[in-house]
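Format notes (please read before filing issues)

Several people have asked whether sequences and structure tokens are stored in separate files. They are not. Every record keeps both together, in the order shown below: the sequence lines, then the token lines. Line labels are part of the format and must not be stripped during preprocessing.
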Amino acid sequence: MDRKTVRDIPVKGKNVLVRVDFNVPLDEQGDIINDAQIRLHFPTIEYLVERGAKVILLTHLGKPGFAIKEDLRLDRLRDHLERTLHKKVTKTDEVIGPHVRKMVDEMKQGEMMLLENIRFYEEEKDNDHTFAKELASLGDIFVNDSFGTSHRRHASTVGIAQFLPAVAGLLLEQELLVLEKLFKTPQKPLTLILGGNKCDVKLNVVKNFLDIADNFLIGGGLANTFLYAQGFEVGMSYYEKDMMEDVQRMMLTIESKDEKVFVPEDVKVADRMGDDVPVADIPVEDVEFGMKIFDIGEKTIDHYVRIIQQSETIIWNGPLGAFEHTVFGKGTQKIAQALANHKKTTIVGGGETLEALIKYKIPFSSFTHVSTGGGAMLEFLQGHKLPAVEVLQKKK
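Then the structure lines:
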């Protein structure tokens, strides 16, 4: 990686602003369901604390709409950090202002502070110059450890770096090294599993992997569009009609390169979404108008698992079906378990994909790498540069 990291700069006695991604799932009471994403940042936090830095953490939580939402304040996150890190963590009720400045000035070496939810502020989304400058005034160094927000031109990701020396945290470094390796020295055969929706984005990912991947396994709403492009009836299922010609061209290109694209041969259908609905597993050619496709079928699951078992590298982004409903979750669950049991290189990412791992209680440690960035991972896999990485200092 050609960017500097926290290892490349002295941090003792410095105020270090660290952009983390503590946007973890919460239950109806506001309690943390799974803290795996928080713990992934601990190596960076502990590195700085042990070397006598004053660590000031910046994160968002939930979708407050850039307005103050009392149920999305970070007090419970602060309490959780104290319990898991076994160290005191102070918290502010704002991210800028005289009171925040006073609290920062009173910090001692090795202490930690958590600023309030950065997405309470519209200036964050707008990358407001004055707002970013005031945030930066709290620190001497900026560390970006949040891969998941590195595709956004926000004040806490890009703006601060205009005013402070900016380097990567250890988690961001790991994310970039793992993903960069896919394009430089991948172990073959390489299989790319794509689910969810966003057909235009996923096609760009496929395009970027045309000379790298050996197999493309398609599921989720994306599969409905691929099936429609092949002339199959998809009934009342979700699909992107305007992407039909793009999909057809892409499939022809894949075949011309002796790579293989696989779409479901059977699917789970119902007349509506829900947990207590009649479900049928039928061949794709038997889908009729009025039916809705919500998951891949048993034969497709078995076929995809066999391909996974024959692969040296597997990248997975996006669920294979409507897993939030138990009756439509088997495809996603079986693929997740097959990857977890596979003793080769397995890279998993995407917000909904991680939600599925949490739902099915599959530890993140079961995979070679779990990417904390859904949108950022897709941007990277498309070959796009990430704004918050581009602003980091380069190694000489």
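For reference, the curators noted about this record: The chain is about 35% helix and 15% strand. The first helix runs from residue 36 to 39.
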